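[Protein data]
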Amino acid sequence: MLRTSFGDHHTSYKMGALTMTSLRDGYVDMPPTRLRQPEDKALGESLQKKVLLVGGNLRLSVNAFSLDDGSDVTLIDTGASNAWHPTMGLLPLALREANIDVDRVRTIAFTHTHIDHINGLMLPNGDDAFPRLSRLLVPKEEFDMFRTAARLERFHERAEALEAGQRIGTIEAVAAPGHEVGHTCFRVTSEDQTVLIWGDIVHVPSIQFEHPEITWEFDRAQEEARASRLRIMALAADNKYYVAGAHLDSPGVGRITRSATSFRFGPV
């Protein structure tokens, strides 16, 4: 994977016949108490010291990813628009910076239906962010949840249910439930290279690679999220896949290796 362009809000890579671009929607600050040990216990003092903080908080990057095959663009997640913190909603700026015309975005697939992943379908002024969108894919297990998002009501009838194992061209949906009931990763292969766009497998890279047993207070099912994290990390490490994470520090693209029960992330 070769970096081909970058700026404040985007980084593009050549991956086989595709161009993958990391698009920075912004960041969100969260209290470190969101991190939990098994059995929903708070972190002990020794683990707390390993966690990187900014002004006493965890700073989570919020990233989306585009895949350009030279004809159309597929987008994985869309950021938050103006639906949450004012530090997010930069996806339109990132797309312009990367010279990606929004009219070329024809397919959007969600890793899950949390607000920092779906609300970028709509601009703050209420207009469609992607006027020529023809296919909107939502994990099957969260399809009804998406259709309760009142802000996005006009998209409800346009959505299609996405199932694990389903393919969209060179993209394959991989089930990774726990953080949310239908949380999904996307395995993208072009020529001899593969990237796993893995959504919220990791929220806090400063601690969860070394200690993948540490989970997130807001996981729908912490034990299931922990199991999915271990399985997906092992899948990526053992197969030498690139990974791209929604909350890995921007641009959030790299490879992981493992040793015994821990992992290490190396950015591209």
